Amino acid sequence: MNKSITVAMMLAVAAPLGGCISFGATPPDTLMTLTSTASVPVGQQQDSARAKSIVVQVPVTPTALAAARVPVQATPTTLAYVKDAQWSEPPARLFARLMSDTIAARAGRVVISQVQAVTEANDQLAGELRNFGLDATTREAVVTFDAALSRSGASNTEKRRFEARVPVAAIDAASAGPALNQAANQVATQVADWIGR
């Protein structure tokens, strides 16, 4: 069998499969992210010898928030996802980064990583990001964070729930991003003020 016939046969067999093969879902036109409204100015030096340090851990999340999609509480017992709304990375990581920026700017804390924390005394902020999506019944973006703070030298852990709700005009991708960013900043501000200097 010559080479051209073999190639033609392979193409004939593969042609019907073209519509069946998929390399993943089609990504949305844009990906959402969070932007802190409070951040340390570029070039400002931070020194843990002069200010308290803190480790901000990525919060744990329920399964509904582990994906990059935006959940919608359709009824008290059902969830859906906002069409064409997707985060650039898991929302828990985005939220932890936003909190780190806000705590550094508002509380004057030096935010360090878990690896850097091995050699020095510092506070630890952990917790659970319980809500990070839209509530269709109230038409609001909702961010709920259960914080757990362990202060350096203390044997106890302080816990506190923080929540922010921001109205949305519609349950869609265009409304979800800005409203969730605003709510996340409100919660991060509350957390930073609670932690203190």
UniProtKB/TrEMBL annotation:
Record has Cytoplasm as a keyword: no
Keyword Acetylation: no
Domain of life: Bacteria
Signal peptide: 1-25
Pfam families: ABC_trans_aux (PF03886)
Domain ABC-type transport auxiliary lipoprotein component intervals: 38-192
Residues spanning the membrane: none
Alphabetical UniProt keywords: Signal
Gene3D superfamilies registered for this protein in UniProt: ABC-type transport auxiliary lipoprotein component
UniProt protein name: Membrane integrity-associated transporter subunit PqiC
